[in-house]
Design brief:
The complex is a heterodimer of chains A (159) and B (296). Chain A has 159 residues and is an alpha+beta fold. Chain A contains three helices and ten strands. Chain B has a domain of 201 residues: Orthogonal Bundle (Hypothetical protein af1432), CATH 1.10.3210. The chains are: A alpha+beta (159), B mainly alpha (296). β6 of chain A pairs parallel with β1 of chain B, so a sheet runs across the interface.
Chain lengths: 159, 296
């Protein structure tokens, strides 16, 4: 978990078992460079972001982009999609809580991408279901699988 | 099977809690030796010798414990050849946890179709909650870390027994949950008249488990209902939340449960440090996960 995966050419990237975590995937359709991170928490603390930047939204998003560019991606062409950020059904205090890691993760990834000038092509976030996400480089298809709803195509990152 | 005709509507229970235990074939059990070890380690009179004596009565358990004790996880410089040796080298507390892991692993790695869990997923979830409960107990100092580990490992025991009765019912139950805005344990109670927490506690009582452990099974989704409060229940509730959030061993019921922040407060923990707790939890889980590779 929390590693930064990047590939070029052909293949699939997968994030297994996302609860409140976010699976963020980027693809440059021209260079065929793709990357994925499994974000666990919104913000890095202490030196944790340097050890494993992919774990946190604020350090993971720039680290993913950097890793993709190193592999030959053109930053301006990268398209992003994300899934995950589920949450428990209800908090007893019933108000916006720091404990709501899923919502905070989704918001933090979106905010960081926006700050860096990117838009998210599609997202499937929130709810109470665990998800697995798969992105196929050749087709650009980003699919989301849940135990109960099976597999569905969220978007095509090639447009 | 008697549980029929659910059709996404409220259902008059046709099966009782006692039926589940009496009529489920292949019901999980805890070896008598494991229960004795648990009692001995909780008892002020328990000794390394008495623990070794109980363990040596169960050859299958002994073999599994020796395999775990000699696994790369412990990285011991010499081979442990008998249980007395293992108890001395690893310590009573460690042997107790090894014993629980070795006893539960065989039935927890089976898929639980009724909950949409594939092979090993129940184990992943239960082991993660065990590690989490141990961590939370150490942080809060409200509960014994070893008892918390055992409580975490066993918290979803009821699901193991109930799964077969829920096969093919999961989509219908989730439809009820969505339509009526209910948690999954609420749907279980609506459809069956009881939930997996009740089944687990009933089984735990049948095994003569200590009351705090039985309560951890009974109240792990509703710790506020445990009167008087039990810090073991709170540790498991928080660890279950961490485990669900991190997506470890999620089934069709996913995260469809409530979280009661009062459990955190009772443990003297706050939401301000929750991210750090979650990160420490994942580090601890990944370290302990090495046990997985050797447990079989």
């Amino acid at each position: 978990m929390a590693e930064i995966q990047v590939i070029r050419g052909t293949g699939q990237l997968t994030c297994l078992g996302l609860g409140s975590c976010i699976g963020l995937c980027g693809l440059d359709p021209v260079s065929n460079v793709a990357g994925m991170i499994h974000v666990m928490l919104p913000e890095a603390f202490q030196a944790k972001g340097e050890e494993k930047p992919g774990k946190f939204a604020d350090t993971g998003v720039p680290a993913l982009i950097e890793a993709m560019v190193r592999l030959g991606a053109n930053q301006s062409r990268i398209a992003f999609a994300m899934a995950g950020g589920a949450q428990v059904f209800k908090f007893s205090a019933n108000n916006e809580s720091k404990l709501d890691i899923g919502t905070r993760n989704g918001a933090a990834v979106a905010a960081k991408l926006r700050e860096l000038g990117f838009e998210i092509v599609a997202q499937d976030t929130g709810g109470n279901s665990g998800r697995t996400v798969i992105m196929t480089v050749e087709t650009g298809i980003f699919t989301v699988r849940t135990v109960t709803s099976g597999e569905k195509t969220l978007c095509n990152l090639r447009g | 099977m008697q549980l029929e005709g659910m059709n996404e509507t409220a259902h008059t229970p046709t099966i009782t809690l006692a039926d589940i235990v009496a009529k489920t074939s292949d019901l999980p059990s805890l070896p008598a030796a494991a229960l004795a070890v648990m009692r001995e380690t909780d008892s002020p009179t328990g000794t390394a010798q008495s623990i070794a004596r109980y363990l040596s009565q169960d050859q299958a358990l002994t073999a599994r414990i020796l395999r775990l004790a000699n696994s790369a996880y412990y990285g011991l410089s010499r081979q442990i050849i008998d249980v007395s040796d293992a108890v001395v080298v690893l310590g009573m507390r460690c042997i107790r946890n090894l014993c629980m892991v070795a006893s539960t692993y065989p039935w927890m790695i089976k898929p639980l179709k009724g909950y949409g869990l594939g092979p090993r997923e129940m184990w992943t979830h239960s082991f993660a909650v065990a590690v989490g409960a141990q961590l939370v107990a150490s942080r809060s100092r409200a509960s014994s870390a070893d008892q918390a580990f055992t409580a975490g490992l066993l918290h979803n025991l009821g699901k193991v027994a109930l799964s077969i009765w829920l096969e093919d019912k999961l989509p219908g139950m989730l439809a009820i949950a969505c339509r009526e805005g209910l948690t999954f344990d609420q749907v279980e109670r609506k459809v069956l008249g009881f939930d997996h927490c009740d089944v687990g506690a009933h089984m735990g009582e049948g095994w003569n488990l200590p009351k705090p452990l039985v309560e951890a099974m009974q109240f792990h989704h509703n710790p506020n209902a445990c009167d008087p409060t039990n810090s073991l229940v709170d540790c498991v509730h928080v660890a279950d939340y961490l485990t669900m959030s991190m997506g470890l061993g999620l089934g069709g019921d996913g995260l469809r449960y409530d979280f009661q922040e009062e459990a955190l407060a009772r443990l003297g923990l706050t939401s301000d440090h929750f991210d750090e707790l979650a990160e420490s939890f994942m580090v601890a889980y990944e370290q302990h996960e090495k046990l997985f590779e050797d447990a079989a």
